Amino acid sequence: MSSSIRTEIAKARRIVVKAGSSSLTTPQGTIDAHRIDALVDVLAARRGEGDEVVFVSSGAIAAGLGPLGLAGRPSELALQQAAASVGQGLLFARYTSSFARYGLTAGQILLTADDMMRRSHHRNAQRTLGELLALGVVPIVNENDTVATDEIRFGDNDRLAALVAHLTRADALILLSDVDALYTGDPRQPGARRIDEVRGPADLAGVELGASGRVGTGGMITKVEAARIAGVPVVLTNAAQAAQALAGEAVGTYFHPQDARRMSSRHLWLAHATTGQGRVVLDDGAVEAIVQRRTSLLPAGVTGVQGDFAAGDPVDLCGSDGAVVARGLVNYDAAEIPELMGRSTRWLARELGPEYEREIIHRDHLVILTNSGTGAGDE
C-alpha cells in the first residue's frame, strides 16, 4: 500500500494516541521508564510541530502489580482497584517528568464509562479536554480503574481512545499495541497473513481476533471495534513504530474511516458512549419510518417495552425480531409506555392531557444503529 493514502495522518492537526499496558510496563508489571521516555520523545516531537496531541494511556493496574508484590493481573475487582490506586500515581508522575524534558506540561484526566453516559459529565470532559489543549497542555487520559466497576467499565482503553477522538473532534487515532499490525491469525503461527488496509467489514472476513495479553484487557477485537467507531483514520501498530505511524508512513494496519460524514457531538455520544437502559419494541412500519425516513418515534408504532428506565434515559429501539435498529433518549418512564402503545398523540392529548401530546423519542435525540442507516440527521 502506498504511503500517500496516509497523508491524513501526517497532516492531522489534532491526534489521539493510545498505548496499551504491554507498551508501557515490564513483563514483571513495573513501569518501563525507557519505553515511556521513547514514546514521549515521539509525542513531544509531534507537539513541537505545532499539532495537538491527546494521549490515552493504559498501565495503571499493571504499574501497581510490582509494588504490591502481585505476580500478575488479579481477577478480583477490589485488588484491581487497589493496584490502580498505587499504579496511577506512579504512572502519571513518570509522564510528568518525561514531558518536562521538553518543557511540556501533562494534565491527567480519569474517566469512567458512566462519565461518558451521563450527558452533563460528557460535556464537562469535553470542555476540560478542550481547555487543556488550548493551554498547550498534553492531556493524558485513562480509565478511572480505582472506582470503575464491571458494570461501568469501558472494557478496554481502545474503546476509550475512540470516544476521546470523538470528544476532542480529533483528525486521526493511533492505536499502539504489542503487535505491529492486524493479522488474519496469531502472527506467531505459520500462515498468518498481515492486513495492511481495512476499508470495511469485507476486509475482515476470516480474521481471527485473538484474546488478551498477560497484563492488558484487550485483544484485536477491541482495536477493530475502536477503529469502527472512531470516525477518523486509524492506524494500528506497535510502540516501536509510533514515529513512523505519526509521520504517515506505511506501517501497521490502516483503517479507513467508516463514516464519511461526521455526526453531531450529541449523536456520537448517544451512539458510542451510552448503553440502552431498556428496550422499546416497534412494529414494522415504525422501524421503516425511523430507519429510512428518520422520523420521531410516536406511540402508535410501539408494541412493547422491556426493562426499567426513566424519562431522559437512553433506550434501544428494536424490531419484532429483537434486532436493535436505533437508540434514543426517551420522553417517558417505562411504566408509562404500555398505556400509550398503539395510540395517536391526538387521542392521548384528548384522553390523558396535553402533556401526552409528544413523541416517545424525538428525532433530534435519536441515532440509527442498523447498518442500513447508521447515523443521524444533520443539525
The coarse silhouette is elongated
In what order do the strands lie side by side in the largest sheet? 3-4-2-1-5-9-10-8
Helix content: 25-40%
Mean pLDDT: 85
Work out the radius of gyration.
Answer: 22 Å
In CATH, the homologous superfamily of the largest domain goes by the name: Acetylglutamate kinase-like
- In CATH, the architecture of the largest domain is 3-Layer(aba) Sandwich
The count of domains is 2
What's the end-to-end separation, in Å?
Answer: 37 Å
- The total of helices stands at 13
Strand content: 15-25%
Number of strands: 15
Low-confidence stretches: 211-218
Order of helices and strands: HEHEHHEHHEHEEEEHEHEHEHEEEHHE
Task: Please describe the biggest sheet, giving its number of strands, its sense, and whether it closes into a barrel.
Answer: 8 strands, mixed
Structural class: alpha/beta
CATH-derived topology of the largest domain: Carbamate kinase
Report the top-level CATH class of the largest domain: Alpha Beta
Function: Catalyzes the transfer of a phosphate group to glutamate to form L-glutamate 5-phosphate.
Subcellular location: Cytoplasm
Binding site for ATP: 18, 177-178, 217-223
GO molecular function, one term: RNA binding
